[in-house]
């Protein structure tokens, strides 16, 4: 029934999309004189440009740059040379982090070598949770004590101890366990190395050692606090950096018993076991989950017979499907094993997986046979597939069979009796997989993808303050080097250090990349490490991570590259170039800039990363070098109205503690004085910022004179004048006192798009650069669109030369009150050329509507004030459609592969929510109305902001990752004026559109005598299509990836510890368990 209703709904939507507006041009003479509208547009354009030029000082600044024209040298940017240099800089930084980890590895292995385990060892250490805690009597807690903590700006003002580390023990472990106490004791030797590393490289942040026993030693020492339930969920052994360093890439089939005997708690434990196994898989691993009883059932049916990459998105998808598992029938393990072996064999032959280790994780409550015939057929004698049985439940009647399977197939057996046992027991298989690497003493350096680890105390504090911090981790394994345990391959743990992505951005000289240029880096899997278009959070204000934020592919942000040419070349670590036209969204995704980018890329040696640089053609491919004396430049740089980009690195003030309190301007002064040899600065950037300071200095006196002239700006319509230069230098002048500013966030850190950031120029700068030289771009900030206290921004670019290859030297602009701006418009629209002063038409007439729209179709002025900031198609749909048909505006189709959509959530009882027929019909009608009105218009503010980005509302919906397709609109520059008529059921509606001179604005005058509201504005075209990212086709599809360089699946010296794991002789099998066990009844395993 539901499917039939949806079919009818889709049919009605299709019919709705087929309706169209009929436009008529020609025979009917419009009632709106073009000459009058042209007069209005000219009058308003001249007035508003005069105001903008006067208060911004644009003509003065253009003149000053012209005076230096002969003293500057214009250079074309060599993109390939630039990207190679940037890669070398990053390689050097990464190498320093790796060397620090090597010193930790050497110290840890030596300390363990000298230590003899003592089961009775008593040792008081600083427990991260118990430090500075007291009991009811005021005495220090055991394993606590006084631990000096002081705020440190390098660690984001968190209170830390730079002399000592602390030890965290998972809540489910005993912090005085002998193995933990011994490990903590010998690892105290790392304190000295932590401190030494930090002194050698002051840019280091957190260093740590994650022990295979479960404890976590962290430097600098910091206080950890449990959650509201008194629990600390952090276990270092299931972190990506630990698993990636400890093991090699692997292909895994998780085989889950869903026979009748697994009902109740056993199935609950089994689900949790599978989920914990998924936690141990990373981006270089591949997996599938297969359930079995008397036949096999793929947990995700569309992945029948294959494996999928273990990224966050795919693992979460499988977790959601685990609830579908139901226990019934007979357990035919031979059927499940056969399917698992065939899947692994077939997938391995494709060459698309890890092509390294292979394993079957068997989650069951027993096995009535050893199934040696299955192993003989598929796995012996080579035993390339390891078997890891997890016996669920307290009974051990068939444990011997499962133990035999593990021993006969180089695996490991473990029993899980309760939910509390799951995590610790699942971890055991990692020790087995790590043994070949340990015995070979291969200390592979691994780097993780970009991630946010919010379980750590510093991450929680940062999340409260400034939002989650993206980082990558470099990690190395630590091995036991004792001779007596060498052939057992004992992993002691993993050392690591975090590298914030912001540190990578500091190595990138933004001034060399141009206004629209940027650098980006990806992993060997094609996932983004850093890119200006990566959006890891739901909303800026919510600070919540998207579920798939760490596995966003480069092709999802550089989506114009349909063939993945750029992505695949970078994944394969090639060096080269690539070009394509791109559509870059700005202003919260509501505007689009169509650019032609040239890409340059190369690999970052010693890491799995590749680096790319994008330069836009035209002014983006050129830079210039000026020259002034240091004395001149410093004098003008120290003016109080001068600011430098906070996130640009003029001087590296983080490297040495004594420099961390310096502002960038203070650091530049110190550097130029020559008194500080240890201060590293960008000499080229400093020279250019001194030049810009000198050239722009006259504007300070100019703006001051305007402020002092009381006859100027008497109504306080113009509030701010501002400028920015290609070197990140800004000057700001207020024409009103700060408290009287209408938009107080503009040009502050709160206005992220309006200031220079590490990866982009200000929005007003970027938009001005794409306008015709000498024209101003006007816009209404969307965050204040319908507020009576709104403002209008006007900015223009300053070119160095009067030619196409000229770089953009700077941009200047003003902020004015919207009310002031609109008043100028209405005054101009009342003018007429009649000698008697009697105008044939006026915007005051009831029969016409007058609008002022920008080049993206957004309304700045309308008689109905509530329309301010809205898309013109919402107010005049038929007219907007006609403008599209006539070519005055063109549609640009955009895609967002990082969108978030709201869907109906499951009901509170945990069962799958199904829409009843009535609700489906209501939704169908709603879709009809929505689609018929929205699809031709850019109602992006409704669809994108409200339906995809807002936090979850109510009990019936939830947010999920999705892909969206939506339109944006851009005016055609060559069309200055247009008249048109629309046939609205026999009534002819006329309109005139006229460009405002020297601007990005258009005056639109519409005859409102005809009601065209019933006419569909749609001729055809695309919907804002919400397609869930986890469709079957997308799950199956695998893009090119590069496997890690190292692989250690086996080692000939591996021995058989504790009779549980494998024998060193490949053809020697353990004796079969007594056959008597096979005939014993096993609860419901056989009979149900």
From TrEMBL:
<keyword id="KW-0107">Calcium channel</keyword>
<dbReference type="GO" id="GO:0005891">
    <property type="term" value="C:voltage-gated calcium channel complex"/>
</dbReference>
<dbReference type="Pfam" id="PF08399">
    <property type="entry name" value="VWA_N"/>
</dbReference>
<protein>
    <submittedName>
        <fullName>Calcium voltage-gated channel auxiliary subunit alpha2delta 3</fullName>
    </submittedName>
</protein>
<keyword id="KW-0406">Ion transport</keyword>
<dbReference type="Pfam" id="PF08473">
    <property type="entry name" value="VGCC_alpha2"/>
</dbReference>
<dbReference type="InterPro" id="IPR036465">
    <property type="entry name" value="vWFA_dom_sf"/>
</dbReference>
<keyword id="KW-0479">Metal-binding</keyword>
<keyword id="KW-1133">Transmembrane helix</keyword>
<dbReference type="InterPro" id="IPR051173">
    <property type="entry name" value="Ca_channel_alpha-2/delta"/>
</dbReference>
<keyword id="KW-1015">Disulfide bond</keyword>
<dbReference type="InterPro" id="IPR013680">
    <property type="entry name" value="VDCC_a2/dsu"/>
</dbReference>
<keyword id="KW-0812">Transmembrane</keyword>
<feature type="compositionally biased region" description="Basic and acidic residues">
    <location>
        <begin position="1042"/>
        <end position="1056"/>
    </location>
</feature>
<comment type="similarity">
    <text>Belongs to the calcium channel subunit alpha-2/delta family.</text>
</comment>
<feature type="transmembrane region" description="Helical">
    <location>
        <begin position="919"/>
        <end position="943"/>
    </location>
</feature>
<feature type="compositionally biased region" description="Polar residues">
    <location>
        <begin position="1076"/>
        <end position="1088"/>
    </location>
</feature>
<feature type="signal peptide">
    <location>
        <begin position="1"/>
        <end position="18"/>
    </location>
</feature>
<dbReference type="GO" id="GO:0005245">
    <property type="term" value="F:voltage-gated calcium channel activity"/>
</dbReference>
<keyword id="KW-0732">Signal</keyword>
<keyword id="KW-0851">Voltage-gated channel</keyword>
<dbReference type="InterPro" id="IPR013608">
    <property type="entry name" value="VWA_N"/>
</dbReference>
<keyword id="KW-0325">Glycoprotein</keyword>
<dbReference type="GO" id="GO:0046872">
    <property type="term" value="F:metal ion binding"/>
</dbReference>
<keyword id="KW-0813">Transport</keyword>
<keyword id="KW-0407">Ion channel</keyword>
<keyword id="KW-0472">Membrane</keyword>
<keyword id="KW-0109">Calcium transport</keyword>
<keyword id="KW-0106">Calcium</keyword>
<feature type="domain" description="VWFA">
    <location>
        <begin position="251"/>
        <end position="433"/>
    </location>
</feature>
<feature type="region of interest" description="Disordered">
    <location>
        <begin position="1042"/>
        <end position="1088"/>
    </location>
</feature>
<dbReference type="InterPro" id="IPR002035">
    <property type="entry name" value="VWF_A"/>
</dbReference>
<dbReference type="Pfam" id="PF00092">
    <property type="entry name" value="VWA"/>
</dbReference>
């Amino acid at each position: 029934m539901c499917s039939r209703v949806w079919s009818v709904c889709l049919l009605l939507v299709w019919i709705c999309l087929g309706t169209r507006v009929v436009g008529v041009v020609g025979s009917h003479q419009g009632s709106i004189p073009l000459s009058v509208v042209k007069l209005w547009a000219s009058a308003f354009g001249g007035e508003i440009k005069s105001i903008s030029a006067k208060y911004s000082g644009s003509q003065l600044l253009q003149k000053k740059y012209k005076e230096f024209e002969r003293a500057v040298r214009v250079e074309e940017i060599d993109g390939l040379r630039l990207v190679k240099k940037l890669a070398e800089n990053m390689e050097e930084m990464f190498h320093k982090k790796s060397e620090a980890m090597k010193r930790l590895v050497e110290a840890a292995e030596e300390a363990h070598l000298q230590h003899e385990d003592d089961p009775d060892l008593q040792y008081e250490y600083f427990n991260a949770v118990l430090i500075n805690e007291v009991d009811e009597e005021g005495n220090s807690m055991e394993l606590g004590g006084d631990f000096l903590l002081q705020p440190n700006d390098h660690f984001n003002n968190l209170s830390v101890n730079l002399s000592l580390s602390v030890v965290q023990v998972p809540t489910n472990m005993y912090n005085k366990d002998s193995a933990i106490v011994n490990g903590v004791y010998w690892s105290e030797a790392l304190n000295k190395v932590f401190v030494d590393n930090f002194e050698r490289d002051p840019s280091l942040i957190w260093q740590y050692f994650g022990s295979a026993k479960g404890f976590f030693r962290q430097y600098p020492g910091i206080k950890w606090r449990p959650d509201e339930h008194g629990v600390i969920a952090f276990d270092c052994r299931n972190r990506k950096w630990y698993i990636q360093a400890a093991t090699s890439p692997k292909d895994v089939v998780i085989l889950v018993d869903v026979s009748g005997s697994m009902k109740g708690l056993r199935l609950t434990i089994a689900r949790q076991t599978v989920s914990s196994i998924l936690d141990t898989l990373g981006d270089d691993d591949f997996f599938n989950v297969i359930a079995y009883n008397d036949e096999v059932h793929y947990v995700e049916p569309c992945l029948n017979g294959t494996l999928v990459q273990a990224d966050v998105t795919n693992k979460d998808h499988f977790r959601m499907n685990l609830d579908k598992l139901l226990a019934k029938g007979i357990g035919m393990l031979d059927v499940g094993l056969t399917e698992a072996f065939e899947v692994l064999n077939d997938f391995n032959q494709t060459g698309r997986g890890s092509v390294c280790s292979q394993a079957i994780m068997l989650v069951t409550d027993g096995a009535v046979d050893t199934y040696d015939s299955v192993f003989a057929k598929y796995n012996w004698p080579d035993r390339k597939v390891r078997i890891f049985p997890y016996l669920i439940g307290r009974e051990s009647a068939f444990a011997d069979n499962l133990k035999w399977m593990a021993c006969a197939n180089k695996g490991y057996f473990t029993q899980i009796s309760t939910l509390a046992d799951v995590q610790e027991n699942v971890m055991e298989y990692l020790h087995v997989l790590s043994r070949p690497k340990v015995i070979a003493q291969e200390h592979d350096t691994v780097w993780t993808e970009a991630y946010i680890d919010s379980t750590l105390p510093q991450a929680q504090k940062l999340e409260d303050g400034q939002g989650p911090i993206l980082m990558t981790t470099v990690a190395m394994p630590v091995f036991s080097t004792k001779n007596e345990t060498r052939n057992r391959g004992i992993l002691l743990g993993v050392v690591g250090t975090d590298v914030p992505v912001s540190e990578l951005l500091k190595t990138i000289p933004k001034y060399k990349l141009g206004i629209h240029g940027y650098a980006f880096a990806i992993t060997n899997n094609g996932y983004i490490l850093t890119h200006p278009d990566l959006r890891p959070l739901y909303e800026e204000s919510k600070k919540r991570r998207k579920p798939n934020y760490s596995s966003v592919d480069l092709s999802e942000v550089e989506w114009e590259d349909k063939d993945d040419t750029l992505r695949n070349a970078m994944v394969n670590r090639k060096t080269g170039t690539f070009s394509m036209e791109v559509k870059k969204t700005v202003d919260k995704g509501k505007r689009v800039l169509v650019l032609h980018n040239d890409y340059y890329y190369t690999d970052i040696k010693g890491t799995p990363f590749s680096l790319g640089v994008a330069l836009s053609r035209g002014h983006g491919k050129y830079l210039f070098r000026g020259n002034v004396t240091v004395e001149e430049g410093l004098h003008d740089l120290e003016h109080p109205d001068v600011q430098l980009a906070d996130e640009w690195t003029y001087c590296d003030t983080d490297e040495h503690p004594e420099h961390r309190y310096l502002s960038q301007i203070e650091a530049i002064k110190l550097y130029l004085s020559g008194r500080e040899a240890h201060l590293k600065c960008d000499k080229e950037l400093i020279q250019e910022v001194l030049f810009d300071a000198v050239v722009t200095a006259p504007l300070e006196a100019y703006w001051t004179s305007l402020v002092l002239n009381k006859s100027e700006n008497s109504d306080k319509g113009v509030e701010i004048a501002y400028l920015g230069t290609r070197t990140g230098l800004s000057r700001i002048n207020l024409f009103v006192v700060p408290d009287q500013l209408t938009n107080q966030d503009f040009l502050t850190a709160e206005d992220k798009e309006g200031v220079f950031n590490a990866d982009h120029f200000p929005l007003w700068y970027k938009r001005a650069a794409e306008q015709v030289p000498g024209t101003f771009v006007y816009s209404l900030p969307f965050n204040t669109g319908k507020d009576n206290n709104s403002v209008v921004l006007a900015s223009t670019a300053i070119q160095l030369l009067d030619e196409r290859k000229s770089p953009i030297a700077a941009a200047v602009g003003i902020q004015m009150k919207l009310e002031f701006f609109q008043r100028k418009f209405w005054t101009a629209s009342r003018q007429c050329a009649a000698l008697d002063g009697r105008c044939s038409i006026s915007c005051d007439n009831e029969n016409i509507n007058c609008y002022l729209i920008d080049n993206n179709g957004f309304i700045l002025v309308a008689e109905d004030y509530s329309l301010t900031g809205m898309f013109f198609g919402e107010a005049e749909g038929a007219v907007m459609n006609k403008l599209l048909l006539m070519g005055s505006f063109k549609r640009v189709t955009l895609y967002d592969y990082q969108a978030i959509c709201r869907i109906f959530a499951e009901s509170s009882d945990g069962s799958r929510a199904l829409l009843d027929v009535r609700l489906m019909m209501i939704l169908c009608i709603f879709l009809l109305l929505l689609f018929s009105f929205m699809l031709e218009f850019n109602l992006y503010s409704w669809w994108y902001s409200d339906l995809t980005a807002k936090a979850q509302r109510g009990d019936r919906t939830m947010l999920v990752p999705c892909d969206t397709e939506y339109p944006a609109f851009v005016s055609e520059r060559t069309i200055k004026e247009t008249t048109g008529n629309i046939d609205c059921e026999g009534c002819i509606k006329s309109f005139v559109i006229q460009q405002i001179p020297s601007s990005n604005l258009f005056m639109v005058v519409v005859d409102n005598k005809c009601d065209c509201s019933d006419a569909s504005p749609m001729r055809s075209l695309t919907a804002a299509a919400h397609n869930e990212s986890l469709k079957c086709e997308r799950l199956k599809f695998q893009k090119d990836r590069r496997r890690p360089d190292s692989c250690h699946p086996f080692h000939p010296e591996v021995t058989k510890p504790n009779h549980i794991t494998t024998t060193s002789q490949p053809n020697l099998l353990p004796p079969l368990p007594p056959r008597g066990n096979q005939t014993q009844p096993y609860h419901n395993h056989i009979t149900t």
